Amino acid sequence: MCGMTITEKILARASNRERVTAGDVVFASVDKVMVHDVSGPGVMMVLRELERKGKRVERVWDPDRVWIAEDHFVPAVDKIAAENIITLERMSERFGIKKHFRYGLGQYGICHTLSHEEAMVLPGEVYVGGDSHTNTTGALGCFATGMGHTDIAYVLIHGKIWFRVPETLLFRLEGHIPPYIMAKDIILKIIGDNGTDVANYKAMQFAGSAVAEMPMDERFTLTNMTTEAGAKNGIIEPDERTIAYVKERTDRPFKALKGDDDAEYEEVFTYEVDELEPIVAKPYSPANIAYARELNSVEIDRAYIGSCTGAKYTDLLEAARILKGRKAKVRLEVLPASQSIYMKALKDGLLSIFLEAGAVIGPPTCGACCGAHMGVLAKDEVCVSTTNRNFPGRMGHVESKTYLASPKVVAASAVTGRITDPRDVADG
Amino acid sequence: MMKGRVHKYARDNIDTDVIIPGPYLKIMDHNELAKHAMEGIDREFVKKVKKGDFILAGRNFGCGSSREHAPIALSYAGISAVLALSFARIFYRNAVDGAYLLPIEIGEDAYNGIEDGDELEIDIERNEVRNISKGKVYAMRPFPPLIKRIVDAGGLFNYTPE
Ligand code: SF4
Fold this sequence. Notes:
The structure holds two protein chains of two kinds. In chain A, 31% of the residues lie in helices and 18% in strands. Chain A has 14 helices and 18 strands. In chain A, the strands form five sheets. Chain A has a five-stranded parallel beta sheet with strand order 4-3-2-5-6. In chain A, strands 16-15-14-17-18 form a five-stranded parallel beta sheet, with helices on one face. In chain A, helix 6 links the parallel strand 8 (168-174) and strand 9. By secondary structure, chain B is an alpha/beta fold. In chain B, strands 4-3-2-1-5-6-7 form a seven-stranded mixed beta sheet. In chain B, strand 5 (119-123) and strand 6 form a beta hairpin. The model of chain B has no long low-confidence stretch (mean pLDDT 95). Chain A binds chain B through residues 25, 27, 37-39, 41-42, 45-46, 50, 72-73, 77-78, 80-81, 84, 130-132, 134, 146-151, 153-154, 162, 164, 196-197, 200-201, 230, 232, 285, 370-372, 389, 391-394, 398, and chain B through 13, 15, 17-18, 21-23, 25-28, 40-41, 59-60, 63-69, 71, 86, 88-90, 93-94, 97-98, 144-146, 155-157, 161. Bound molecules: iron/sulfur cluster (SF4).
């Protein structure tokens, strides 16, 4: 009998079993659950429906394991969004949920950034969130997956949910990362080579020397976009860097798990990162990739640096390195992923670099990443963006065009007004 | 047994942004959401769909976000089942756990053989999709045991784990 992967080990622990194997269906205990201003009101709707059927929900299974983010439509974009925020307020009050990050009240931001910045989730845990990019947090070595609001409501009441234990695809990223390459290029390459459903129902695990040398922020970009490959979860086994990152943020105890040496992977993919070139995903799929240099004739109208994928501190820093002392030729929008990243960028002088380049700086919010507000695109507008999806209409009009790229490529493109390889602007 | 007409979208990766575009996510009223179903791909959809109808599509239907708004919008627009070569995972579990509609996995034969507007009958006990308009019968992929139990119970909240 072969060993277990880290994903199998976490699910075995959470379902009180000696071992689980890919394909098993388990009811697992959940350690943490998150809702935001879209999924939270959705959950409350499910609870109201239950109430209508005579089952009033008085309490959630463990209010200390539930946390709330306000990110998609904040600052409240209109009356409906404002009401949804009030619904969230009522929700945390009614159930005694203390970890509620409110905009305009100190630290708040995009849920998948807070999850690790604030150590809301710890290595070895089972974490479900009412958002598809919940996968992001798996870079801490936890099982993290997104669900809809019926499932989340079920978890809130019962503290458990069913999972089919996923097969694991292992991506070995070997070699050293060249200075012009970011995790975004690597994950776009993986999705482009293998398709947007390569990991459907499966786990995507990353390992290898290139992962070991990545800062945590970069690792979160890898796991974030496993969602674009259909994955149930993205995961990276915790190493010293992971443990240090978590310990800097919390005193709470945790038990980091790793897979067995003889764990079984459904397939192993190996990438030599030294050979990679900056990559861009063209409209209308994250798998529709080309080299940035091949797209140098594509003129852009907008450059967008935002979202859980591309507005972490490292993302802002890399973009600022290129923008320093330069002017953007096209509209440039920068939305830090959280208030604390915003403040750090302020203290470290990154915000002045962006402002001097001509950028507008927005508040932490999902904003135009999901076409909600803050820089949505008009018909035929072309945007190069650090976000993760470029489906028709994702960032605005169905006939707008989004090119997905790393913060370096977005910054270089902002400078030239065309899609640009960072090597083609000095210091890139 | 379900019976209805099929709306065929012969393409892969029909994502949640085209099923129900992002700006509508703040809407919590199901009937209101239904007015915008499939807006990103077919503005005529809500006018032509009738209660009980089906959608037929290619691979990876419902990929993208975890928005339960997607199966809700389709369901309240009248769709009782989506037939596809494969489904994205969150759409699949939302559809089943919330009991909005049935995600039916079919093979290439059914995908190619069924045309837009055909009248179908779906029998999840015998795992059959019957094309009444063309007099053909196709196999559907049986639901895994747990999924079938949740479907039979009428959603996750009505299901008691054994
Ligand atoms: S930033 Fe974009 S991808 Fe991330 S949670 Fe918000 S809408 Fe989703």
